[in-house]
Structure formats: C-alpha cells, structure tokens
Amino acid sequence: MRKPRQEMIAETRGKLIAAGRRAFGTIGYAEASMDDFTGEAGLTRGALYHHFGDKRGLLQAVIIEIDAEMTERLNEVSAAAPTRWQGFVDECSAYIEMALEPEIQRIMFRDGPAVLGDISQWQNTPGCIAALSRSLDRLKADGEIIDIDTETAARLINGASSHMALWIANAENPEAVSKRAVAGFKAMLGSLRRQQRGV
C-alpha cells in the first residue's frame, strides 16, 4: 500500500536532515557536499532543493532539530533540581557546558554562526528569551530574585550564555575555558538573587 503524501514528505525530510546532521557533525559544513547528503539518503539533489532550497537551508533545519533536543535535555536538568532557583542555574550552566559536545560544538557554535550569522538573530532566539523571561517571572514571584525587568534580564542571560558557548567552542582548550565560563556565569546569575534573610 502506498504511503500518504504527507508521510512520504516527512520521511524524505527526515532522511535528508539525518544525512546532513551526520555530515555536518563529522566533516563540517564547508567540506560536506550535496552528494554526501543525497547519496546517503538515497535521494536526488532535486529532493534536497525542493525541501531545503540549498545546503544552507539544510543546515538551518539540522540546527532547529538539535536545538529542540537541547531544550528537552535542559528541561530535564531543570526539573531534576531541588528548587526552582537551582533548576534555573543548572539549566543555564548545562547549556554552556553543551558546547563541549563535539556535534553541538561544531554545528551549533562553529559552523552555525559562520554560515547563518549572529546567533542572536536566529529564528529560535525569541523563543529562548520568552522561556527565560517566564522562568524569571516565576523566580520573581517566589521572591528569589531582585526587582528587575525580566525581559531585560532574559536578554542579558541569553546573550551571555551564547557568548560563553561560542568562546568554549572556539577555544584551544575548551575544557579549561568551560570551567571558567561556567564559574563566571554562575557568579553573574548570583547577582540577581535577592539576599535571603537569616542565611
């Protein structure tokens, strides 16, 4: 029985994204060719052009997929923490530390900005800032953080965490830089916290 058209489209897209992700994650964007993606997926160049326009469009789709996976992992980190504040700190720190993972490091924080431009202008950034703002609103309602405009704080945190991840990904010694970046970032977050009486 022939598969429904929508299912076939989703399957073709999925195959191309998986092939692109493997190529971008191993040999990098510059070295990966159209034939790497289409050959591995058993599809034609026409299919790639139809679904993604070009190699850049495929990279964008791969980044959206990885970003969604990162978000899911970060939500799990936050949910596992004993308090909302600790969850927030752990989630932000985990994002920075993900820049040590080879696939994320290469695709999200090296090739992504080189090909797609400033990370703060990517299409997923407004969603990240909105999620951070909601978290900060809850922390503010709990009396955990100082009286600060939460969108401003969210933009500061988003920019700082992205910058730290880029620093790690492009460092000669990413492990050493990660330790410094996370320590500095936690200190910055700590400055938002309201002084707890009796502590």
Automatic annotation (TrEMBL):
DNA-binding annotation, residue ranges on this chain: 33-52
Query: Which is one GO molecular function term here?
Result: transcription cis-regulatory region binding
What the entry lists under Pfam families is as follows: TetR_C_41, TetR_N
Print the keywords alphabetically: DNA-binding
Q: Is DNA-binding among the key words of this record? A: yes
- What InterPro entries does the annotation carry? Homeodomain-like_sf (IPR009057), HTH-type_TetR-like_transc_reg (IPR050109), HTH_TetR (IPR001647), Rv0078-like_C (IPR049484)
The HTH tetR-type domain, residue ranges: 10-70
**Protein name listed in UniProt:** TetR/AcrR family transcriptional regulator
